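Course exercise 7: structure representation. Students receive a sequence record and must write out the corresponding structure in token form. The form below is the worked example handed out in class, using IclR family transcriptional regulator (252 residues). Read each field label carefully; the graders check that inputs and outputs are placed in the correct fields and that the protein name is recorded exactly as given.

STUDENT ID: A-19
EXERCISE PROTEIN: IclR family transcriptional regulator
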Amino acid sequence: MSQTVDRALSILPLLAQGPADLGQVAERLGVHKSTALRLLRTLHEHGLVYRQEDQRYRLGARLFALAQEAVENLDVREIAHSHLVALNEQCGHTVHLAVYEENEVLYIDKVESRYPVRMYSRIGKPVAITVAAVAKLLLADLTEPERRVIAERLDYPMYTSRSIPNAGAFLKELAVVREQGWATDLGGHEESINCVGAPIRGADGRVVAAMSVSAPNVVVTAEELLTLLPLVRRTADTISREYSGTTPTKKA
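STUDENT ANSWER:
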């Protein structure tokens, strides 16, 4: 049964690359066409795949509906969204929310910039884990042994001359982020894009998500973007309090 489930689930990433016919699916799975057809029919019955008029299969609408429902039911996203919108209205720049899941950092919410020059990023898309501000915040909260294991496992693509080049440099960056409580990506992924971010914490103080504000150099300089850091941190703190069910301490 587990092998059948595994094969059926293996069809989904295949079809995510584009429509495929029965023969292509069977070849990719390494099974007879009759087996592939049986799996496809089951997925079709559940709305997870759809057979087109040309007899090729593609991902079904039900799959997208389930994905959207899952994203919407992530508590931190539901709680954070109105605050992300408010931050976007104040500064005008792209705002992201991200979480760490299954060894990836994923965007789970995004509020677009009001400016015509925008970032290419999508909800559900993994971020560049070695350079993104949200990734640094999420990984910095892990224990030192966990950080070291992850750092030594990662590749370090040099997206730009400012990208983090190796595990040693990454661990040093995570230590700084852990100490200061905020992170940046100043041209590390794209030369023209800068980003500042802050962590969102649960009741136990652990980081459950990270948020950031990003903008291209043609809109604001890196120095100008950094002036928004207090606002970003206040927004993250507000979300943290609401998420964890606590209230700010009143000053005497």
